[in-house]
Structure formats: C-alpha cells, structure tokens
Amino acid sequence: MTNDLIHATAAELAAKIHSGEVSSVEVTQAHLDRIAETDGKVHAFLHVDTEGALAQARRVDEAVKAGEQVSPLAGVPLALKDVMTTEGVPTTVGSKILEGWIPPYDATVTRKLKEAGVVILGKTNMDEFAMGSSTENSAYGPTHNPWDLDRIPGGSGGGSSASLAAFQAPLAIGTDTGGSIRQPGAVTGTVGVKPTYGGVSRYGLVAFSSSLDQAGPCARTVLDAALLHEVIAGYDHMDSTSINAPVPPVVAAAREGLSGDLSGLRIGVVTQFTGEGYQQGVLRSFEAAVSQLKELGAEIADVSCPSFDYALPAYYLIAPSECSSNLARFDAMRYGLRVGDDGTRSTEEVMSLTREAGFGPEVKRRIMIGTYALSSGYYDAYYGSAQKVRTLITQDFAKAFENFDVLISPTTPTTAFKIGERADDPMAMYKADLCTIPANLAGTPAMSVPSGLSDEDGMPVGLQIMAPALQDHRMYRVAAAYEAARGAFGGPSL
Amino acid sequence: MTALVELMDYDEVIEKYDPVLGLEVHVELHTNTKMFCGCANTFGGEPNTNTCPTCLGLPGALPVVNAKAIESAMRIGLALNCEIAEWCRFARKNYFYPDMPKNFQTSQYDEPIAFNGWLDVTLDDGEVIRVEIERAHMEEDTGKSLHVGGATGRIHGAEHSLLDYNRAGVPLIEIVTKMIPGTKERAPEVARAYVTALRDLLKALDVSDVRMDQGSLRCDANVSLSPKTTGALGTRTETKNVNSLRSVERAVRFEMTRQAAVLESGGEVTQETRHFDESSGSTSPGRKKETAEDYRYFPEPDLVPIAPSREWVEELRLTLPELPWERRARIQKDWNLTDEVLRDLVNANALDVIIATVEAGAKPDEARSWWVSYLAQQANSKGIEVTDLAITPTQVAKVIELVNAGTLTNKLAREVVNGVLEGEGSPEDVIEKRGLKVVSDDSALEKAVDEALAAHPDVAQKIRDGKVQAAGAIVGAVMKATKGQADAARVREIVLARCS
C-alpha cells in the first residue's frame, strides 16, 4: 500500500483522496515515512514540517468527508524549495546567514499552495541563495542524486528534484534563475518547468537575481507539473513584474498532448547546443528524442540562434550584479545571523564579520563580481554590454519563433557529475547551465522532460523544450506527447 | 563643542567673491500609504509600528509603486514648469546604512519623472529672480536612527543606536535646482526666498505637510565661492540639517564667510557634507568617509518602467490650483492693495488667513484689520505665527458678521475672540457662556438712561438746554452700568429723545 502511494502520480493520488479511497493523512504519512527512511542518504530536506503537513492533510480529509468541492491537488504532498518564505516555518535559502530565521509571512506561491489544499511536507535543500548547479553550495551539506548517491542532483534546486526521484514527494516547487529547475530535473530524470517570467509571483521568493528568478513546478510527469503550474500561476498585485494575463491553459495542453499527435507542429533544433563539450550519451539520447518527435508527426529542422553563444557570459554579469544588491540586506541588523556584536565593535565591523561568516565562497564570489561590474567606470562595459546581449538573445528567440512553434535542445551538456568533481572549477560548474540560460535572459518559458537514460553511465538525460512568452501550454503539449511515446525508463533504487 | 572657525567679514566676502548657490529640497508626500507598500504614512507613532515585510526589507518582499505618489510627483513637476518624462524608471542606489532596510535606496537616478523647469522667487523688496529647476524625482525615505549617549546626538561618540523604520519607505520628492549664480550679497536671502516659495507652492498643491520642523521639508544648501579675479568656479560644500527658513539663510551666509576665510588664508575648500548647528548658527564637517562613495546605480529590476500618457499629464495639469503668486497678484488687484501693503501681509504670513476670512463672508478691509492688528498682537504676545492661533478664518468672519449686525460691539468682539483663543469653543459658544450679547431691549436701556439722568441732574439740564455734546457723559454712565453690553449709538438716541 505505502509503496503504491509513494509511486503514484499526483493526479492519481488526488483522484484517490477526493473519492475517499485513501485519506490525505495516509498519503502524507506514507511520504513522511519515506523521507524518514531515505533522507539520511539523499538529504533532500532542510526542514520537515511533520505537524504542519498532517494538519493540512486532516483539513483536506474533513473537507472531502463533508462533501465539499476541493481543488484539483488538494491533499497531495509537495516539497517546497527553501527559497520561498513560509510563515512560522524556517526559511534559510541554504545559507548560514538566515539560520534560525522564521519568516512572519507566506510567499504568494506558499499561500496559493495552502489555499489549494496542497500538503507542504517541508523545505528542500538548495545551493546557497540558489547560486550553483549541484547543491554542493548549500551551507547545510550537499544533496545526493537518488540514481547514484555519489553524484550531484543538479542545482540550485537539487533538493526538490531529488525528493521527486527518491519518491519522497510527488510534487515540488523550484525556482529557476539560469536553469535551477530544468538542470536538476534533467539529471534526476524528473520534469521541471520554468514558466514565462512574470507568470508566477516572485513575492516571498528570496531574490537572487530579480530580473531572472522565476518559480515553477517540478514533478515526475508532465500532467502533474501542469496541474501544479495552474495552482501557483497567475497575476499578483504584490509583484510589479507579475503579468496581468490569463494563465496559459497548460493542463488542457498536457491532456491534449497525451493523445500522441503532433502533426503539423514545427520544432526547431537549436544548433548552438551541440558538439564539443557535450557528452555522447546525452547527444544520442537527444537524437532518439528527435526521431520520436518526428514519428509523432512534428516537422523538425535546425535553427541557428547565434547570440546564444554569449548567454553564459552575459548571465554571469547580470545575475551577480543584481545579487550584489539583493543580498546587501543581510547585514545582521534586523534578522538572521549576527556575529561579533560584543559591545566593542562598530556597526560596520559587525556587518562585515556577519557577512564574512554567513555567506559561503560562491555567494561571496558573485557578490564581488557583481559589485565590480556595477561600479563606476565599469558599468557600461559590463552590466551595460550584458543587457545588450540580452536584447539580442530575445531577438534571436523572436526570429526563431517566426518559423517554429517550439525549440528544443538537450537540457544539459552532461549527465550528473560526481560530487566534488567540479567544486574547484567554477567555469566547469557554470557550463552546466549553458543551454538553460537563454530562456531566463529572454523571459520565455522552457522545460525539461526526461529523455531516458544515457547509454554510457545509466544516468538520466533531459530534453529541453522552449516556447514563446505566454505560450507555456505549447511546450506542455509537446512534452506530454513525447513522454507518452518515450514510455517508462525505470527509476532509482534506494 | 565646535572648533573655532575663522570667518571673513560679509562685506569683504562680497567684494572678493561671487557666491554660487544650489539647493536640494526633499519633500515628504502626505499620501495615505508609503511609496512601495500599504503601510500608513503618518508622522510620529510608536517606533516600528507602521512596518511590513516590504518596508522592513525582509527577504522575499517586493515593492509596488504608489500611484498617488507618482501623481503628486507629476503635479509638482508641472507646477515647477518642468517637462514630464514619457518613460522613466527607478534605480537602486546601493550603500550600507542601518536605517536603510535593504541597504539600497529605491530612487530615480538618470531618468527623473520631471526635469528642466523654473520657479520665480520674489525677494523681500519685490525683486523677482527666476530659479531654474534641474529635476524633480521620486525616492523613498530611510528609517530614523536615534543615537543614544555621546554629547552631540550624532553617531560619532554614541554608545548605541535605536532604529525606527516607521519612516522607511515614505514617499519623497527631491527637487534640485540648477546652479544659481549672480545673486551676490543677496545669496542667503535668495536661498530662503526660494525655499519659502517652494514651500508655499507645495502647500497650495496639497501634496505635503511641508513642515520643516518635522522634517517633511528638508533643505540641503550647496554653496561655493567664485573669486572675482579669476571667475573660476569654486569647490562646493553641501550643508544638511537646515531645519527652518531662517536657518537656510543663516547656513548660506555662514558658509560664505567660512569658505572665504579658508580661501583667504591660502587654503582650499574641501568638498564635503557639512552639518548646520541651529544654536551656534555654524556648520561643521560631517563624518569623514574613508573611501569615495560609489553608489553602483542600476535600474531597479523589481519595478516596471513608468510611462505616463500625455492625456494623464494634461488631466493633471488641469488639477493644478491657483499658484500662490498668481493668487497674490489677483488679490492685490481685486482689493486694490499697494505693493507695500501686500508684502507686509505676505511677510506676516497673514495673506492666506485673510483670504480665507473673506471667502467666509467678511469684507477684505475688515478681515485685514482683524488679522494685522488685534490677532497679530495676540500672536506676537504668544510668540507664534498668526496662522498658529487657535481661531479659524471662518470664526473670525463670524465675529465680524456679529459686529456688523449690532449683536457685538468692537469691545465685546475682542472678548469673544479671546474666548475662542482660550479654547472656550466657537464664537457663539463664548457669547453664550460669557453672556456677551449687546443689550438691545429698549425698555431696559430706557430704564438705565432714566437712572443715569436722575443721578446727573445737572448734565440732564444741559442736554435739555440744547448742549447735545453733554449726552456723552450719560451714554458713558449707561455703558458702564450695562457693562458695555449696550449699543452706544442706540443709547445716545434714547438719551436725546428723553431730553427733548
């Protein structure tokens, strides 16, 4: 029974809970047991909220018993990335500087999940302040990939994706600034979606890079991701960059895709994302996916987006610049860590000592890069130029979408690497996000759907699907059709 | 404990140097809510009660622009004859300070909402000087630090500091002038007159409380001296903490004499922020910065650009009130006032209350007479402005109306006004409570007249003999007997009738 519950999809669990076949408490308890049993090995969670989860599950069960109409995902458990504020529940963003901070308010995403009756199991591990591609930068220790515990689960949202792959939760929330939802999805064999920028409110998402950060759904199936997408998306007056437009019909698109027909759909293969530096097993998996999409009726051709070659350097100027400003508020004055306040030191000294002790090396590196890039005399050359690249990338996307409905590429150049393998080589680490960054810079939606396992190392590979802004449903349709054609590819054994 | 500073005689300064002014005024808007969140925008209050995740800069919180603040900024820009930007943005000004919750201030930088304007400023002698406005931009206020311990109340030497974030995020408009050259010996006066004119303008626009004493209008005065021999521009200082109109004038004057003395002794003026001390009337250097400030401005990614439509701008232009100087010109013409009389009214800060009294029904002459004589005396004796007296223009108009109706004599009217000033309520309340009505009942007056005539038979005889002027003594006796509550003219009529 427990085994069935943890392996079921969110859609299946919701149907069972809402029909009264099982209770949300049973489902929740099964997942809490699974976390207790496996998280010593995986370390997906920073905080498990047993009481909060069971209380929410009981509320849903009562509502179901009372015959009330409940939301489509009511009673289904979810793992929440520790970057979203949760009233009364610790939120650390993977950093020592926020250790012990209990937010007094819920992020809009958190609030929407609660209102929809979703059961929040706890907060998942992440690279500190979402800066990283392996979750090794967490101040609380790395998360392990359930497919191979010696390997990274991707990052920054490695905890969320690993919890899905480990069957600790059927749903998770991630945030994606340069690939932090899609790349962990790819290397853990799960689905990860970065919606159109502004599609999901950023209120309560602890900012890394404001103009790039976007929260999105993570799941094991495309339909589950779509169901979660519709719960968290929508206009929010608390976020000025939130888009005041109807939520794209992603659930309908996912269901339509399951029919398996993509006749007439035009798919562009981005030629920039192949060749040197790409693992052969990843490329072979990608080629197989292209063939399957053709069999589904799609018309597939190459498309060149030359400015994508400059996406990585532009990203590593814009994101650190914004982060250098966003992270200035962590100064020991109002909340979080305070170091050295013994009555002999000045405010500036306490601020410096706290930031020295509270931030990890990668966060410091990016604050320094960003501070430099914004400084007087360098602004135009660095931040200014990066913004121009951003415009070019947006134009390349627009041009490509004149001829294609969606674009595809591998999600990552390689499968999950070994923990520690790239720890001393930031450039190698940064390249994990090579294919995912353009969509962040352009604000367009993109997702990763598993394309099976690499024939070299048996590790999962991801297929990236990109769509124009506010056309999120297009990629769901393609992903669902492909997922059905691809079939099962096994799972990790823990 | 200010170190002794060498100063040059003011006349000598003017002989040798041309002062160049620049004024930056920060105005707190009195919108209901703060610039970027829904917290109440109120002065005072228990520390840290008007706060929320956004204005405390909590992780994850985001700003949303207050539309009313944008509207106020545009109206200020229009009243200052500025162009209104078709597209502008907020930027982040990055620096660390404990009373700034995010350690960056959300402010406009190179894209202000209003720019290139001017304000005509009238000096005490009637001369008009046009001050050019560089820009008016929107930003948020910081919290307040209270430095405890130490002698000065400034951070230097303090034992600890308390932080109050109630003010954090209050909408501010910063209005910056272009350089104001050529004011010569009148530079201090021009500075004061500009801030005065700006204050009056903002008051008329009803966008701010404009209380310098409460910090809702704050002025930074930039001063530099240009030697007449070379004409080269001098190094400027920026003086802060100038908390009254008089202080603006004093601070500019002090800086001129100080800088001149520095230059005269062969020294160089240091480009720095200085702090004005109200009690000594002097300025002293602000805290020395170890490194040059680099604010690392960049466009605020949490906010979207502001692109006011031209229709909106024109709609707002129509909401501009009659501006203070336009109003003065109209009043001068309508009431036929000389330049001198008008200036006295303006300088006594009495014009607005007089206009309001007239609007409440009084005649201009009567209203003016009350405010510049009896009420001005009362204000003077209390050491306050006439506008701070505890009587409203409407109440003054009511008193005037009662005098004209014969219900009050002038003497009684002053007593009624005293009652109102002492907080006894409206003029009607005071009349009721103090029993101050004119006695207009003829039979009572006749009785009093008869008694007075009986008490002064010799006077009565003189009147009967045709010496009408002797009636005054009887009238006086009746007024005394009725404690002044009789209408003297009516008493006289009765006396004459009785003796005919």
Notes on the protein architecture:
- The complex is a heterodimer of chains A (494) and B (500).
- Chain A is of the alpha/beta class.
- Chain A has 17 helices and 11 strands.
- Chain A has helices at 2-7, 10-19, 24-42, 50-65, 108-115, 158-165, 182-188, 222-232, 250-257, 280-295, 311-326, 347-358, 361-374, 380-403, 426-430, 437-442, 472-486, and strands at residues 45-48, 77-81, 119-124, 171-175, 191-194, 215-219, 266-270, 299-303, 406-410, 446-453, 460-466.
- Chain A has an 11-stranded mixed sheet, sandwiched between helices.
- In chain A, helix 10 (280-295) links the parallel strand 7 (266-270) and strand 8.
- Chain A is globular.
- The model of chain A has no long low-confidence stretch (mean pLDDT 96).
- Chain B has 500 residues and is of the alpha+beta class.
- Chain B has 3 domains: 10-312, no CATH class; 324-434, no CATH class; 442-498, Arc Repressor Mutant, subunit A, CATH 1.10.10.
- Chain B contains 16 helices and 14 strands.
- The A-B interface holds A 84-85, 91, 93, 98, 101, 103-105, 107, 202-207, 209-211, 237-241, 321-322, 324-325, 328-331, 333-335, 347-348, 351, 371, 374-376, 379, 383 and B 53, 56-65, 92, 94, 96, 98, 101-104, 161, 163, 294, 296-298, 301-304.
